[in-house]
Amino acid sequence: MEAQRITEVVGKIHGRPSSIVTELRRVSEATETVGRLKKRGGVVVKIGGSLNGKTGTLLEDLHDLHEFGIPITVIHGGGKKIDERLSELKIPVEFRGGLRVTTPESIKVVQEVLKQLGEDIVTKLRSNGIVAVHVLGRKAFVAEQKPELGLVGTFSGEDTFRIMEINRKGCGILRCMALSGRVVVVTPSARDMKGKVLNVNADEIAEVIAKVTLTPPPVAVFVTETKGVFVGGKVVDEISRSEALGLVSRGEINGGMAPKIKAAAGLAGIPGVKTGIIGCEDHELLKAVFRPGSSGTWIS
Predict the structure, then answer these.
(1) pLDDT score of 52 more than 70
(2) What is the pLDDT of residue 255?
(3) What are phi and psi of 151, to 5 degrees?
(4) How many CB atoms lie within 10 A of CB 8?
């Protein structure tokens, strides 16, 4: 059955082969990839809030990966839904450097919207035959508050080492869940050392999950409404960490893409890890897993 599924996935990725030899080679390569992903950390997928429910072939791709027994952790955003709800309640919306300024008034709204989105994703996964479990980030992660952004947490503050040591336990729990055959859906949030709930950017949580796990995942992707990173009006296939961070620092890349670039750049230096920013159409997740670099923008 697995050989048949792999053949079907290869067809989705490559289309019709030019010869039987080509198909056999592709199936062999895909089989090796499945084995490697099952032995190592699997796949981390960050679903951008900008998608706003437009998942394309993403659910189908996750189903295929789940059928192979590959450990999968999904982290979701929710920016657009949060903005809509805050606007309805006439609560001001403000961003700095692509990060949401979160006030005592807005934190409850942010958490309620994100929790509902996480539950909705789990429901969709289960309706597609995927065993999924929902985890609230504040139950697993500790962060340091960034006062200039209000009730916003970061994992790269003054107490980074201590925070990361604590978060290894949270990531370890998530990893055990993923290894048990469940797709873990993480709603972004954290608590500070005193238990106060903080809003944390989903890209940063995805980076920490991918980085802190004892066995880093070979593939970590950030799924957005765009096809990748635009430079000079077109999507680039590959970009170095220094080039990508330079674009952010110069303001050429801003908004919600800036935190994604920073998170991907933070993962790009880990040996064996492939990380990129992709869209959700045309089986781009499967392409990212089985043919890294064949779609979207990959950070090297």
Answers:
(1) no
(2) 85
(3) -85, 60
(4) 11
Decide the pairing of beta strands 197-198 and 190-191: antiparallel
Helix axes 257-268, 241-249, angle to 10 degrees: 150
Separation of alpha carbons 188 and 75, rounded Å: 7
Q: Report CA dihedral (188, 268, 219, 257) to the nearest 10 degrees.
A: 50
Of 263, 244, 124, nearest to 206 (Cα)? 263
Pairing of strands 72-76, 183-187: parallel
| Spatial separation of the C-alpha atoms in residues 181 and 192, rounded to whole Å | 30
Checking if the pLDDT of 167 tops 90, the result is: no
State the pTM of this model.
0.92
Domain boundaries, the chain: 2-10+41-299
User: Are the beta carbons of 259 and 203 closer than 8 angstroms?
Assistant: yes
User: Domain 2-10+41-299 belongs to what architecture?
Assistant: 3-Layer(aba) Sandwich (3.40)
CA distances from 179 to 42, 137, 150, 249 (A): 9, 19, 36, 38
